[in-house]
Amino acid sequence: MANAQKVDGVLGTDLSAAQGPNVDFATFVANGIQFVIPKATQGEKHVDSSYERNAREACAAVEFVGGYHWYEPRQDPIRQAAHAVDLVGEHVLSRATTPMGVMIDFEDDDRSDPRGPVHGRDLVQGASAFVLEVERLSGWRVLVYSGKYFWMEAVGSYDAPVLSSRSYCHAAYPRSVCPGGKKSADYIASMRALPQLDPAAPWKGKRVDFWQFDGDKGLVLPQGVDADFDRFDGTVAELRAWCRGQRIGAITKELGLELGDRDVKPSNVIGFADRAEQLARERSEASTNPDVPTKQSSDRIAQIKLPVEDPDATWNGEDPKGGGGAA
């Protein structure tokens, strides 16, 4: 642990069923991991098979715990939001010492579909609706996870004010950490060689709060544990303050910010603690009128300001229409 403290920033991990059903959280803690963001949900109905255990064990092992949702661009974003909040609210927001809220995993454009990928306005509008609905239902700001090349190709030159105004987790794996993608047996030594946080982010030098610097089949802990490894750009005290600032009521009360049309206002927030009652009511309405959820979704999506093409949109000087592939 002494070696881990020499690393700039706070170390963390995001994990899912891909890491197996019996993740050893003691190994993570022993190697300096201080925050965990397990996969909770995907699409409208899927629940990660390891989520309940991972969330429970993470809340017992570390102070900072969140939950991430894999966003499916062709599924209803409002239903996806409710699904994510229900699971993360129950297993993390009500249990973690310091909750981190919901993170949207924004890296899927459904390109394998015969109809082709979902890009541009449709992708941005749906993901924006998801973010705003999660915030309305949970009372927590959403952390946006994405990568440079996905954003350049899938979002392109469209303005995405909701997504790009949230805190950002940047996926980029520098070869200096794990040359050639080979597994490293010396995790701590590799971490000590980590360069400064990559400044690239959605639009014009926006601050990167989190950096996923290693993916699956990259760095491996000395005990053989493989996962995605992340870093928060700040101290533990600053991470704690960031978590407090993610609470929507805290943002307006403590900072006195005027929230625009693209934001959820505290007066509109339901909060995850009251979500169960609302869910029961919506299910009752749906049983008598199957079209109710669909109409609710359509109405809320229609409230999102349509993104427009921004001819000046760049990613640190690069043409957003150029390049592709994963970051």
Topology:
Layout (H helix, E strand, L loop, with lengths): L9 E6 L9 H6 L2 E10 L3 E2 L3 H11 L2 E7 L6 H17 L4 E8 L14 H19 L4 E5 H8 L5 H4 L3 E4 L15 H6 L17 E5 L13 E5 L3 H10 L2 H8 L19 H14 L3 H11 L25
Parallel strand pairs: 1-2, 2-4, 4-5, 5-6, 6-7, 7-8
Antiparallel strand pairs: 1-9, 2-3, 8-9
Helix pairs in contact: 3-4
Ends distance: 30 Å
Look at the structure and name the CATH superfamily. Glycosidases
Task: Characterize the biggest β-sheet.
Answer: 8 strands, mixed, barrel
Strand content: 15-25%
Encode the helix/strand succession as letters. EHEEHEHEHEHHEHEEHHHH
Proportion of helical residues: 25-40%
Please work out how many helical segments DSSP would assign.
Answer: 11
CATH hierarchy: architecture: Alpha-Beta Barrel
Q: How many domains is the backbone divided into? A: 1
The spatial strand order of the largest sheet comes to 1-2-4-5-6-7-8-9
Q: Radius of gyration from the CA trace?
A: 19 Å
CATH class: Alpha Beta
Q: Poorly predicted ranges (pLDDT <50, ≥5 residues)?
A: 1-7, 179-185, 198-204, 250-262, 319-327
Mean pLDDT score: 75
DSSP strand tally: 9
Query: Looking at the structure, what is the overall shape?
Result: globular
Which fold does the CATH topology refer to? TIM Barrel
- SSE class: alpha/beta
Provide tags for this entry.
disordered N terminus; 11 helices; TIM Barrel; 9 strands; 327 residues; 8-stranded mixed barrel; globular; alpha/beta
